[in-house]
Write a structure and sequence with these properties.
Blueprint lengths: L6 E6 L4 H17 L6 E7 L5 H12 L7 H8 L2 E5 L7 H15 L6 E5 L6 H10 L9 E5 L7 H12 L7 E3 L7 H11 L2 H4 L7 E9 L8 H4 L3 H19 L8 H13 L6 H7 E7 L1 E3 L2 E3 L17 E6 L11 E6 L6 E8 L14 E7 L3 E9 L7 E9 L2 H6 L3 H11 L8 H19 L6 E3 L6 H8 L17
Parallel strand pairs: 1-2, 1-4, 2-3, 4-5, 5-6, 7-12, 8-17
Antiparallel strand pairs: 7-13, 8-11, 9-10, 11-12, 13-14, 14-15, 15-16
Helix pairs in contact: 1-2, 1-14, 2-3, 5-6, 6-15, 10-11, 10-15, 11-15, 12-15
Bound molecules: NADPH dihydro-nicotinamide-adenine-dinucleotide phosphate and the ligand O=C1O[C@H](COP(=O)(O)O)[C@@H](O)[C@H](O)[C@H]1O.
Ligand LXAUTJHC binds next to loops.
Family: Belongs to the glucose-6-phosphate dehydrogenase family.
GO molecular function, one term: glucose-6-phosphate dehydrogenase activity
Enzyme class: oxidoreductase
Length: about 500
């Protein structure tokens, strides 16, 4: 039985893309599961002069196509939404916001609980946090929690500046930094896989693991987000956050308890153990690329430099592949290969852990075995073992043991944003990023960017391929290859 949370949610950026595509459906999910029920109100803010009635139409339109939604549910949900036209840079507006929040606090009997959600460009985060304090919006009777969207800075220096300005108002335990990968079902399943199975617990270390591969492949291009992406690129957009978090989950020690504090303790240690490259090491171990035009199934796909809002001579990376290492006693020397890119052959998010082959005994030299975690679009696992061929032979053959979550059940499970907003409302910090983690990830990523800084070349890869040849050479020089090499193109993903 889900426990109801009492809260007023103040959503900065209530008219934006993220709010409509992700946040309203997520809140609707919480409403239908009962975590948001009677005692909640949402104040959406943005500059455009909307009325409450129009805002409720926008919110209704954002959720009415959710599977199984009824008109009654949609109307009941939307009735909790209020709109405040508000320029976040103007201190005067916070007075009206404060008055409305206080009124709704009483009306819905929420006990002074407030969730401030910053779904706006990061350049506004510090301004909003400062005004929340200076204009006395924070309550003293309930909780005050701040949810912050990505990106958290552009490099370590800007992230620290942002963090300093936010922590002038909010304590670390009140700050919920979003990395939506931490809300994904199969990311949350890593803990169970690693620590509930003695089979894997025993071999999850450098003595048995040959290498780990992480692939976050996207079929989509930059779409309408060039304004943001041009200044970020794949390194900052995907490696600094999602890939680093996966690396930490895969290499951290077992937490002492299933609590946020215990999990963050081992996760922070994993981040601290990341081997930060010198610029020369970075240049040797990380490659980048940019997608070029290609014709796929008769349709011409634009190259990155032809996309709306992208400079014709852009040097923004739309693909990154690299090898990284973790200097911990358990993982020292295990290569972790990562890659991510836009306009790759298919959408696929997966992790493969390859185990070392047996070097002695009856089957010395047998092929390495491996375990793959499928995060998306399908969710499940596949374990390749060395089996015995049928018949009167002792010869081996690879055999695959597979599990896949039922697609219908998976579709009905809460989506990442629903889990994360639900956790923030419940005060569970487990699946949010701590400052030490963000800082360590930026130190790592800044070193890669420094390694590329003196190199004006930008390898290209055809849209619909699996990245530039450099990404394949990176593994080939270690005698390895990417485990996942899809052969057919499904650009619809
Ligand atoms: N969209 C996505 O898929 C994702 C977005 N994010 C992050 O979420 C955040 C929001 O992104 P997104 O929704 O795409 O951005 P949008 O540009 O779609 O929305 C920005 C919002 O901010 C409001 N706004 C802009 N300036 C002001 C101002 N001075 N005062 C008050 N409101 C203002 C806009 O409304 P108005 O113009 O009416 O003022 C709008 O509601 C960003 O940090 C982004 O990086 C993260 C992951 C994915
Ligand atoms: O954070 C981001 O993630 C998405 C990919 O997320 P996924 O859940 O579909 O794997 C990416 O498209 C976007 O550029 C990035 O900002």
């Amino acid at each position: 039985m889900t426990e109801e949370t009492h809260a007023v949610i103040i959503l900065f950026g209530g008219s934006g893309d993220l709010a409509r595509r992700k946040l309203y459906p997520a809140m609707f999910g919480l409403f239908r599961r009962g975590q948001l029920c009677q005692h909640f109100a949402v104040i959406g803010t943005a500059r455009r002069p909307w009325s409450d009635a129009y805002y409720r139409e926008i919110v209704s339109a954002a959720v009415e196509d959710e599977p199984g939604a009824t008109a009654g549910q949609v109307a009941a949900f939307a009735s909790h939404f209020y709109y405040q036209s508000h320029d976040v840079t103007d201190a005067a507006h916070y007075t009206t916001l404060k008055d409305l929040a206080a009124k709704l606090d009483d009306q819905y009997a929420v006990g002074g609980n407030r969730l401030y959600y910053m779904a706006m460009a990061p350049s506004f985060f510090a301004t909003i946090a400062t005004h929340l304090k200076s204009e006395a919006l924070l309550t003293s009777t309930g909780f005050n929690r701040l949810v912050i969207e990505k990106p958290f800075g552009h490099d370590y220096a800007s992230a620290k500046e942002l963090n300093d300005s936010i922590t002038a108002t909010f304590d670390e335990h009140q700050i919920y930094r979003i990395d939506h990968y931490l809300g994904k079902e199969m990311v949350q399943a890593i803990l169970a896989l690693r620590f509930a199975n003695p089979l894997f617990k025993a071999v999850w270390n450098k003595d048995y693991i040959q290498d780990i591969q992480i692939t976050l492949a996207e079929a989509v291009g930059v779409e309408e987000r060039a304004g943001y992406y041009e200044g970020a690129g794949a390194l900052r957009d995907m490696v600094q956050n999602h890939i680093m978090q996966l690396v930490a989950y895969l290499t951290m020690a077992e937490p002492a308890a299933k609590t946020a504090a215990a999990i963050h303790e081992v996760k922070s240690a994993a981040f601290e153990a990341l081997h930060v490259y010198t610029p020369a090491e970075a240049a040797a171990n990380f490659v980048r690329g940019q997608y070029a035009a290609a014709t796929i199934n008769g349709t011409r796909i634009n190259g990155y430099r032809e996309e709306t809002g992208v400079a014709a001579d852009s040097l923004t990376d739309t693909f990154v592949a690299g090898k990284l290492g973790v200097d911990s006693p358990s993982f020292a020397g295990v290569p972790i290969y990562v890659r991510t890119g836009k306009r790759l052959r298919r959408k696929s998010t997966q992790v493969t852990v390859t185990f070392k082959p047996t070097t002695s005994g009856l089957f010395a030299g047998a092929a390495p075995t491996n375990l793959t975690l499928y995060l998306e679009p399908h969710q499940g696992y596949s374990l390749f073992i060395n089996g015995k061929q049928l018949g009167t032979t002792t010869a081996l053959m690879p055999e695959e043991l597979k599990y896949r979550h039922d697609p219908h059940a998976a579709a009905n499970a809460p989506e990442a944003y629903e889990r994360l907003i639900g956790s923030a409302l419940a005060g569970d910090e487990t699946d949010f990023t701590r400052w030490q983690e963000v800082a360590a990830a930026w130190h790592f990523v800044d070193a890669i960017a420094a390694g590329w800084a003196d190199d004006p070349t930008m390898p290209t890869y055809p849209a619909g391929s699996m990245g530039p040849s450099e990404a394949f050479e990176l593994l080939a020089k270690d005698g390895h290859q990417w485990f996942w090499q899809p052969t057919h193109i499904r650009l619809a993903d």
